Amino acid sequence: MNRSVPRPMDAEAARGIARAFLPERPLGNRYHYYYALSKLRTDPLYPGVLDLLRGHAAPLIDLGCGLGLLAHALRRDGQAMPYLGVDIDAPKIERARRIAGRAGLEGVRFEVMDLGAGWPAHHGSVAILDVLQFLTRDQQAALLDAAIAMLAPGGLLVMRAALDDGGARIRRTRAGDRFAALTGWMPDRPRHYPTGDELRARFDAAGLDVDIAPWFGNTPFNNWMVVARRPG
What gap in Å lies between CA 25 and CA 36, rounded to an integer? Predict the structure, then answer.
């Protein structure tokens, strides 16, 4: 399938979602609000994922969910599938729970989990967004095999990943990921950037229909959108 990269979210929709991330106190820290607003206004990730998942009612697990921004975007888009977000960063998960509770999101849960060590039982669709490169090659293989096993018939695996194609974009991506680890936004440094051929071979072997397309948008990074579907 041939997909075009959508525009980032419009200002009204982005502000509507980001308001949930405002501090509880008037003079509180607004870092997460501005982070969410900037992410939604500059990155085509969420409009693209919303487009892909629209019409799929199967439960969704978000592996490496961070603050749960995807859950807020889904609910604002009218997508009501049960949502479980997991992440290794316990403080982020605690904040995600508080923010989702204040926003009144229904059918949303968050759990602390190290994706390098295990994952919960799940049957439905799977999202893995900007996470893969922080795992080793072996951990990536184990996680992808687990995600494939989680897919229900007709379920989607939606994944954005930085792929190693040897170009300038992947060098910028490496630098950006190292900076995110140094500042503490990501809990670990990047470990392995897979190639598109690596991913395609794994999904082909599992009998999935797969599409891998560039998803740069206006960002400087070497992001690609990978969509795998179990026929049925």
Answer: 18
* CATH of span 11-229: 3.40.50.150
Q: Distance between the two ends of the chain, CA-based, in angstroms?
A: 17
Nearest Cα to 65, choosing from 27, 25, 19, 105? 105
List, for residues 10-23, the tens digit of each pLDDT value. 999 999 999 999 99
Whether pLDDT at 3 is above 70 = no
Q: Which of 3, 20, 137 lies closest to 74, judged by CA?
A: 20
The token pair at 110 is: 């968050």
Who wins on pLDDT, 5 or 122?
122
Length of the chain: 232
Q: Could you tell me the pTM of the whole model?
A: 0.91
Decide if 68 contacts 110 (C-beta within 8 A): yes
CA 101/CA 206 separation, integer angstroms: 38
97 beta partners: none
The average pLDDT across 97-103 equals: 96
DSSP characters over 74-135? HHHTT----EEEEES-HHHHHHHHHHHHHHT-SSEEEEE--TTT------BEEEEES-GGGS
Determine contact, residues 224/191, Cβ cutoff 8 Å.
Answer: no
